[in-house]
Amino acid sequence: MYPKVKPALARAWRDMQTVQFGVTPAHAVVLGPVDTATGALIDRIDGTRGMDLLRAEAAAMGLPDGQADEVVRRLAGAGLIDDATAGGPRAQAVRKRPETLERLGPDLGSLSLVHREPGGDLRGVAARRVIRVQVRGSGRVGGVIASVLAGAGVGHVEVLDGGRVEPADVAPGGLGSGSVGRLRADAAGRAVRESAPGPAPGAGERAGPEPGLALVVVAPRDGLGAWAPDPETSAGWVATGVPHLFAGVLEGTGLVGPLVLPGATACAGCMERDRVDRDPAWPRMLVQWRSAHRRRASAACDLGLSTAVAGLAAAHALSFLDGELPASTGSRWEAALPALHWEAAPVRPHPDCPCGASAGRPAALEHAGGGSGSDRPGGP
Fold first, then answer.
1. Beta-bridge mates of residue 334
2. pTM for the whole thing?
3. Domain span at 41
4. Residue 138, domain member (yes or no)
5. 287 partner at 20 to 30 Å CA-CA among 9, 65, 229, 242?
């Protein structure tokens, strides 16, 4: 083991015997009491020394036998220790790709905070490399989502969309101006490849079977398909248990969610039935809106708002792919111009929907939080 204190957390002394690792309350940890010699030992836990050398240096500082092991155990228990050799075979394979590690440095730092065990950051990146995600839509929202997911290390990102790229589809981080006139699916595929931090899994490796879909992100260019999703479109995902996340911009209003876990959270059918219960005129208007959608020349999709929606949706998707349940699970987040106050509204299963989500709350949704609050400083 070559332990190192996680560099993602800034370190500061609260007083002569108390160290705080991290600035923000979400991940910060307070450790104490820590004397001066132990503090000096902590400075040496940087991944360049094995335990034998750390023990020898601790003895040279006058620390008692076993103190080096105790400090490392204590730091590890607080989620503050990483290990340059941990993570398993897939993590070791990523370590052999220096260009990938350089590109994903900030992502590794973030993953080290979420996955508190040693090697959790590289294990997370290695897991992303074999994940397959499908993005439905390549406009200002969908194109950016696909590029962000690929850039964050998701190994298989495919984009489905029809027609050819129009000038209004171009967005920083998504489809570039040089793609105008090209087939949308081809242009989005190129953007994904250019955003990836290294060769796709299988390039230069023995390619295995294509992984199953871990997530579908529904980000239609018009936005209506995310605001009022068609149950028929998502029926196949519900039937086969494929999680799917809605995101888009419609009439200057951005939305992220819900993330649908088939059989566990409300689906598009639940949402439509609930809306009909509250507004009998909804089906009549929906038919007209969907018909007009096919004739609509342009959408009210502010670039700043679409970029914010794409970023938030990609972050929620990555959180889910990394094994957590983001705030969009069974909920929809909305923000409208000009004030842009993000507000969440729960999306509840409907008892008449055949998806079965109303039958109960599965154990998979009983989501436990992080570490002990006693190790964390006060904060909002």
1. 255, 343
2. 0.88
3. 3-84
4. yes
5. 242
